[in-house]
Amino acid sequence: xxxxxxxxxxxxxxxxxxxxxxxxxxxxxxxxxxxxxxxxxxxxxxxxxxxxxxxxxxxxxxxxxxxxxxxxxxxxxxxxxxxxxxxxxxxxxxxxxxxxxxxxxxxxxxxxxxxxxxxxxxxxxxxxxxxxxxxxxxxxxxxxxxxxxxxxxxxxxxxxxxxxxxxxxxxxxxxxxxxxxxxxxxxxxxxxxxxxxxxxxxxxxxxxxxxxxxxxxxxxxxxxxxxxxxxxxxxxxxxxxxxxxxxxx
Length: 249
What we know:
It is a single chain. By secondary structure, this protein is of the alpha/beta class. It is built from ten helices and eleven strands. The strands form two sheets. Strands 2-1-3-10-4-11 form a six-stranded mixed beta sheet, sandwiched between helices. It has a five-stranded mixed beta sheet with strand order 7-6-8-5-9, sandwiched between helices. Helix 1 links the parallel strand 1 and strand 2.
């Protein structure tokens, strides 16, 4: 039986090959065929979940919370020392030089990443800006958000920190980082569908042992997961879910 492994669509494009290498190693470690699926956007990711095609998923913390609570997915592992933070930026030649310069009526460029948007809204509360105060313009990727800012198609843009700092030096020189979150308690995680509960220990052992060989260490570094994975503890999951509920309130 082939196991379907879905990757959330919010990773930098240069990590595409790295996920395939990780998947190849995962198959060897668990001695089972694993089909890797790279969702191109949040809608495609949700369609696969709705069709019950997902056995393993690398999910952002907000989707993970929903999958655990509503569908019974089982926490497997999380990346070590890799947290989900976000950036609000403007064009370098814009008059917006700080968060205090963001005003009602401005256009904000963003992707479908709900977690990035939610954290941004909490940061914008500091300058009394609410969701209804801004015009939200959808972009297909974080690279598209950067292009849109540079071309003045929007006033500010939202990025995952990991994606923002992976932009080219030329692109970064044309952007102005207004604020970067420092929550340090949100992270992506690997989840397992409850129909495969008997695989939980095997998967945890596979992911947490990947860094133990030079080849495994190299592929993790290529994904920006230099410190590998750690088993997710019950108390960590409960804390994460509580934090997400607080952000949503």
